[in-house]
Amino acid sequence: MIRKFTFGTPVTTDAVVLSLPAETEPVPFFSVSRSGEQVTLTRKMADEDCLFGLGESVRGINKRGNLYRSWNSDIFNHTESVDSLYASHNFLVFFGPDCLFGIYLDDPGRITWDLGFTRMDTAVITSENGQLDLYLLEESSLTELARAFRRLTGRSYLPPRWAFGYIQSRWGYAGEDEFRAVVEEHRKRGIPLDAVCLDIDYMEDYKNFTWRKDTFPPLDQFTGSMRQEHIRLIPIIDAGILCQEGYPPYDSGKAGNCFCKKEDGSDFTAAVWPGFCVFPDLLREEVRRWFGDLYRPLLEAGVEGFWNDMNEPALFYTPERLEEAFRRAEEIRGSGDYESLWFLKDAFNSLPNNPEDYRSFYQEADGRLMRHDKVHNLYGASMTRAAAEAFRRIVPEKRVLLFSRSSFVGAHRNGGIWTGDNFSWWSHLKLVLQMLPNLNLCGFLFSGCDLGGFGCNTTEDLLARFLQIGVFTPLMRNHSALHTRDQEIFRFSAWEQMKETLRVRYALLPFLYSEFMKAALSDGMYFRPLAFDYPEDRRAVHTEDQLMLGEGCMIAPVLEQNASGRFVYLPEDMLLIRFRSPEDYDLVPLEKGDHYIDLSLREFPLFVKRNHPVLLCPGGEYTEALDDHTFTALYWADRTFSFDLYRDDGQDPDPGLDSHLTRLSLSPDASAGPGSGVAISPLVL
Amino acid sequence: MIRKFTFGTPVTTDAVVLSLPAETEPVPFFSVSRSGEQVTLTRKMADEDCLFGLGESVRGINKRGNLYRSWNSDIFNHTESVDSLYASHNFLVFFGPDCLFGIYLDDPGRITWDLGFTRMDTAVITSENGQLDLYLLEESSLTELARAFRRLTGRSYLPPRWAFGYIQSRWGYAGEDEFRAVVEEHRKRGIPLDAVCLDIDYMEDYKNFTWRKDTFPPLDQFTGSMRQEHIRLIPIIDAGILCQEGYPPYDSGKAGNCFCKKEDGSDFTAAVWPGFCVFPDLLREEVRRWFGDLYRPLLEAGVEGFWNDMNEPALFYTPERLEEAFRRAEEIRGSGDYESLWFLKDAFNSLPNNPEDYRSFYQEADGRLMRHDKVHNLYGASMTRAAAEAFRRIVPEKRVLLFSRSSFVGAHRNGGIWTGDNFSWWSHLKLVLQMLPNLNLCGFLFSGCDLGGFGCNTTEDLLARFLQIGVFTPLMRNHSALHTRDQEIFRFSAWEQMKETLRVRYALLPFLYSEFMKAALSDGMYFRPLAFDYPEDRRAVHTEDQLMLGEGCMIAPVLEQNASGRFVYLPEDMLLIRFRSPEDYDLVPLEKGDHYIDLSLREFPLFVKRNHPVLLCPGGEYTEALDDHTFTALYWADRTFSFDLYRDDGQDPDPGLDSHLTRLSLSPDASAGPGSGVAISPLVL
Q1: Euclidean distance between CA atoms A362 and A265, whole angstroms
Q2: What is the pLDDT of residues B452-467, one digit of tens each?
Q3: ipTM of this predicted complex?
Q4: Which of B83, B327, B440, B582 could bridge across to B69 with cysteines, CB 3.0–4.6 Å?
Q5: Structural domains in chain A?
Q6: CA B585, CA B576: separation in Å to the nearest integer?
């Protein structure tokens, strides 16, 4: 059951696809209070209550005990102190002995979620706008709650199948030679690879929708020659448009009056990579159409995937703020006040993404001018929407890969996301593991992190463990920042071990793709907290470092440096597959309960429920080479069971579910493995 | 066996107390290379080799796989990217199937420890000075290596017994009223408390060795009235002396020519809290005597403990660097270079603790002028030494509490340390757990972290879990920064649970004090990695979140938010004591192996080897009220066994070990507990 409560006159966000009548208060489960424009929802929690949701945010799977802010932010230092990341996903589920419901706040402004931070027993949720649709979801289970939320907000984005291949990326690949060298090194060593990202270096002076000519051949030639190597190119697109006459995107946007305005009616400008930029007013349909059409030349030149970046939107500084910082600095300098001098740096550190700047410009929404901060969290989603709408117009026959840094609920229908600029930290291994199930709950199934870590220097063992998580994430991209240590697999002494990890990904790819598509097409979740499958099992509910994957699997990666294994809790009997390569693995049937699993640096585990298979295909160095007719099924069975495998052409934008399923029947008689009922069974479909 | 190899003409550091002849190269176990002034030691490592040591540093107990820099730094953001903290403890142990030895680099300059960071299989250690004594220690076990290092560097500092009591601290207690209110609130609620720290707010304008008169009574009155409440005051002392004529410490230091000099012979100045300061040249004995005598009025007014801070030394900025930052800012501003503008903030962010500033002044060492950076890591240790030498002169009859932020090996004889300005992060729970055994290995037994976290806002559950670790750390201080959430126990709804945690500390205090003193007086370790007790047990060697404590105990605190328990590896049979209060605990005998232990927020575990006791005294609200004649012994015995309890007057500076030991004989016959051989046995000594 989904109910809707409307506060004030909310702006249309495109988050919700279901039209529901608004009910009048009281809102069940909460007390509602108002203060100025703010609306606050308060609820007492029982000791045992858990909270799931909020998609992309730091800290645990269970969000309880902390404070979060919905305020899309370009924030580089994802420590535990960070309250906001690049996205706002305002869906939160309350789950406890006496409660099971979800709330969705359809509100693109700032929201504070005090989830037991100030008082352990109280959740206090405050909308600054105070103008919102509040949806209340009640279902019989966590899984059904997730499904209901998808019914409310629409089907999750479907990427092309090749996007499940391995993607190499780095800020700093500045010309054709470097791209070719990277691709060749992978091919030469047999390291699987499907795509390479083009970071801002491919543009002329970082200008969107330009193509650098001094170090690159024409784009169509480049995409064409790369396709012969079975490599796709994935260019970055930023949000800002350089304010420069004679630069076509600026001229056409200016002519169409497409940019966000300051109070005095002039275009709002702020510095980003190319210099002072203007920002498309993307809540307007005609602006989205204009902006989306800018992708057309790239599509026509053979580009099949994009990443949208800097779309919180990130602002380095405005001219006004910069002048103010200098003024402030001069004042402090003259004052001889040593503490002020100490805090002088704050005048400059507060330049980027300054809240005042977000209050200094306007967007048009529902035909009225709104101060940007009131709709701030929609910006990235609008950019994704502009691109996706263009793709549907321009290449309606196929799926285009799209993943964005910033997002809002609704964007999950139009693209995937990556989890932003993480670091080469071991704690960020755990962070992505804890984000993924909450992202899935909020509709974002196609996701992954920068494997190896974006900022600071990785180490060989950290990259190896990152890749072992990446084997299972739909988006599997190795990405790193300029001036950090080179992070391509082949740079490291144990590259052959990492290659085997990638080979497992490719052997599993048809199976993982099938699990993904079944989840996406049935409004399900690819990754889930254990609580969703075992809501009665208190241990499972509190497990923060293991995830359910697809219908019958569980992952439990190693998250610690120098570890020789890890503890795993099995909520039921499961088969452990300890992978070293697609050909070299252990099959260990394990009983429900606690286990310590030995896992050397080259080993990683996948757990499978009884009477459920994992399918390995013969593998290949790129997705098109994968054979999805020939498999080895691994399982632990005590009865004959069936399994539905999803296969399609990998690009139909609306493929349907049932027509692409093949039902396999598997039996314990096929057992050829080491233990009773454990089977390694060849299959030809 | 300890061997010494001398490179160049090293400066005297006071780290080593043993005089050994220098041997000539080759140095066993390493290849040695030179480049310019640098000396580099290189060693191939086997896959199984572990590295212990480096005292205060981030990341794991096993230091392998990362890069560390010995360079004492006032650094506020202890993420995984940080290479240096406040201290340099240059002792490192190599432990593997085919190696067991330690190296100590007696070198107060910058050292880089690339411990498998660049290449997983290679350790590369580089001294920038290239002038050092290298000590090579070989013994038959890890424990003996630790003991040999203490033989080389001298006995660990002994604090007074009252310093094991609970200490409340906060930056921002600005007057008598606030102190009294804090103390009263503890006493009123029966929360044990022994001392309160005075942060910089107690001084006049942050000037060292002054006493603020507008909000405080005269110091001797204040210490006197607090002692009636059984509370000690622990003032902070910073390193810098305000450059101000008429301010007695400045005048006397100036008259004695006591301050560090720039190349032109003028005093080096840099801004710190009180304004532009000069810095005592503490490597000179006469300067230490002058500086140490500044503590005298405080001691005579009844102060019995100090914390030395800002002694890396921290520098906010020098006048020269500040001018340069403004010049740079103006240049960038004029350039219109947007990327430079983006990095403008770096001009100001690089003001504090700038490496150039540390190269711009000089200290006298061994009668010669040395550029400060060559002896940088000795500064904090010299300040501690100045204070400790003064205490021995002024109050030779008793132990004075002293703990410092910055340190170097050698300072472990003169004082304790706290682990610097941590954050209210769950990851910092684990960080202190992982630092403590390496601190012990390097000689620093009296240590602890800012419980609850210094920077950013704590939560109730985080403070509760911090206190549960704090129960076992010799220094147990709750400390927090100005502008963060109030962090005293009584601020929180579940304060009664935290009070019970403190009551367990006080019930255990005579036992923990005994374990500490036995370790300190026998050159042993109070906290140890499990590898030290179970070197043959690969699982124990790789355990990163449990510690051996004293002779027979092990701790395994909960380190995760919202956890309802944790996994524990028992390397042998142990008795679990699950504490809720001194009167309310479970005794659970557990077999060697893997266990999941349920631990609600109010519960914490202590594990005890078989035939070893834990002793609980009747408790009290301050250490002087503790009765160390009456105990309840908890143990799991299968035979009669003996245990030596250490008791002394808590203040004799040189108490000796044997004369203070009482041998207890305990027998399984006394069993009254729930399991076979598990005893709750009353004792009167």
Answers
A1: 9
A2: 999 999 999 999 999 9
A3: 0.96
A4: B83
A5: 2-153 (2.60.40.1760), 318-351 (no CATH), 515-684 (2.60.40.4040)
A6: 10
